[in-house]
Design brief:
The protein contains 13 helices and ten strands. The protein is globular. It has two domains: 108 residues, no CATH class; 190 residues, TIM Barrel (Alpha-Beta Barrel), CATH 3.20.20. Helix 4 packs parallel to helix 5, helix 5 packs parallel to helix 6 and helix 6 packs parallel to helix 7. The chain is α/β, with parallel strands linked by helices. Strands 3-4-5-6-7-10 form a six-stranded parallel β-sheet. It has a two-stranded antiparallel sheet with strand order 1-2.
Amino acid sequence: MLELAAEELRSSRRKETHSTKSEVRKLKSQFPSREGSGVGSPAALPISASERLRPADSRTQFPSREGPGVGSFAALPIGIAGVCAKTKQATTEAALARELGYHAGLLSLGTLQDASDDELLIHCRTVAEIIPLVGFYLQPAAGGRVLPYAFWRRFAEIGNVVAIKIAPFDRYQTLDVIRAVAEAGREDIALYTGNDDNIVIDLVTPFRFNVGGKIVERRIVGGLLGHWAVWTKKAVELHAECRRIAMTGQPVPLELLKLAVEVTDANAAFFDPAHDFAGCIPGIHEVLRRQGLLEGIWCLDPNEILSPGQREEIDRVSCAYPHLNDDEFVAQHRDEWFSG
């Protein structure tokens, strides 16, 4: 049924596909060729992790560059495939992803709602035997489940884990993941925020823990964020500034804290937490439609539409925070992207 629905969308909305390609061109035009951003181009992965991301038949090289206080980073794009469902399906997806040249699998545990921690970890280890893992803590409101510190502490001991996307939208649960990685002694696991409600603060916060009498600091190095699907050029610039501050140890400017609030307010309009995130995908599509990058806001589920009042909220934040959008950049390059 999913394939039939997808084919119907492809046949009736060809401009959507063309627009997606233009979005890829847009992203490429925003990334410097060698800078690790964590936004979707060169990944901000510790080099020890990136060394484990080579497909068996790949000759891809990962040259490194030194960054103060953060070690070495991979300088080439990393391909990450989504892996979900129960173990049989997940291992099939992982094998296909590896065969297609993906470097790692972002492992969702949302379909294993009733599994115990032991069962979840067996599942994770099984998939990790096939492809390097990016762990994924997804909030229950979006289809995930609560995963305690004890789970993440044992998850961090899986040798083929290279990164974790932290997206519980909860401060306590975010700390659980970071503390677990720190206490496991895993300096080679890259941490990414998926907390669209706390993007800037996650990126500039030093997370410090007493581990065996020694203070250990970990940083979130980038973001895997639906919010960054729009206004992306400004997101790249914001990420670069957050990383500059984190890497140099400079005090966090008051203006950046103000900006953090504005980004969260904008995200509330796009992601629709007022209606339990029911309009999060249509909200992102609406912003892209306004920029002329999409023809409409359709989703595979025809019932997935903007929530009542969401369009007006997008109007509000667009007017309130014009410095956050990249409308001018898109307008300058849109015809170029569509002509390719």
